[in-house]
Write a structure and sequence with these properties.
With about 290 residues, the chain is α/β, with parallel strands linked by helices. It is built from 11 helices and 13 strands. The longest helix has 10 residues, at about 275-285.
Amino acid sequence: MAAQQGAIRIVEDDEQGRIITFDSATFVPGFYGDASAERDVVVAASYSGVLCARMVARSKPRGVVGLDCAIGKDGAGIAGLAFYEALGIPAAAVDVMTAEMGNGFDLYEEGIVSRVNELAYEYGLRPGLPANAAAAKLKGLTQLPSIDRFASKENREIVYTNDAGRSIVCTDSIAFARDEDRGRAVLCTAGHTGRSVVDYIIDSGVWGFICSDGGIGKNDSGITALPLANAAGIAGASVSALTARMGDGHSTYYDGVISAANDLALAKGVFVGQSAVDAARLLVDR
């Protein structure tokens, strides 16, 4: 029987260690706090980019399984695999068409590995392996990785402010929204637009947002937050993960091409195929 705590589940717990699923990598630091995850394999339904790897690696897990989010521009969806490897953490990424973004348990139950880092390969993980089997292999390991001293670094820039005092802000995750963004900022961020980000969007009270579609994924899970944000009165859109690097809000803004938008954003003039630069200006000015 899996122990469940909201969007976090302990799916295995025995003498070898634990396997824990998280709907988002952003939930990992809060779950562990100052504690070590050295007995745990973290299965997080976020992209396997550097930003998410910094968040997860802070807790020093035994191993990690994430999503590949269609690999994306410059391989940003799996760039964190090399980051983990540098810290001595074996890690794998699952094909986003086999598992839902923002749903850690679905990743664990249904996901199929598409990429692994060198350490994971040495321990027997291979593309094509079910995610739960990959996690089970990682649970048997005993190595203790090092820690990233720069894990809390935030990349934030206000790139435009209009006469009404509203701004376009580039930041790498919607989880990095600030109180000052409430009611006045359009955030250009670089995580997926799946269900696990809905609370961040609504709680932030931002004027609008642009995230990544994460490759759309199984059951359109990479954009499921769009209609939910619409219902909360927040205009938002997603850019194709093939056009902008996940984990890099500046790339979302400068490189991204809109792949989906909610009704409020469409009413402001946002459309599929539009540059994120133009879409963000429409969101902030109208």
